[in-house]
Amino acid sequence: MKQNKFLIGFVIVFSILITSFVFYFYQVFFSENILVEQGDQLIVIEEDMDFQDLQDVVYEKGIVNDMLSFSFVAKILDYQENMKPGLYLMKKDMTNLQAVRMLRAGEQIPTTTTFNNVRLKPDLAGKITDNLQADSVELHFPPHPSTVVALAAISAGNGYCSY
Questions:
Q1: Is the CATH number of domain 31-111 3.90.180.10?
Q2: What is the mean pLDDT of residues 120-144?
C-alpha cells in the first residue's frame, strides 16, 4: 500500500516535470522573441564577426527580448559555428527558430547598387564593391570574346582583324 502511494506520487511529480519542460521548450522555440512590439530592422553580420559579436549587436539594437533563449536555439541548431556574413532583415514578431534558421541558411536581402560615370571595368568593379563586403580585386571581369579573337588575329600576323 505504501509502495503504491509512492509510485503514484512519483508518476505525478514526473508528469508535472515533463509537462513543464515540454512547455518551456515550446516557448523557447516557438514563441515570439524577435522585435516584439517593434518594426522590422536590418542587421549586418560582418565577415570577421563571431557569435558573441552578433549577440552584442542584437542586444544593443533591442532586437531580441530573451537573449538566453535565442542563444540556446542557436546552439541547438549549430548556428554559432556556421555564421554567414551579410545583410539580414529581422522581421517583427519572429520566433527564435525562424530567426536562427534564416541566419543559418544565409537568407539575405538583396542590396541595391547604383553607379554612374564609369568608364573602365576596374572603375566599375570599385563602384560595385562599395556596398558589398568584397574587394574590387575579387570581382573579376573576363575579357570579351571579340577582344580575344582580335588579339589572336593580330598576333597571328595576318594584318587584319575581324570581330
A1: no
A2: 64
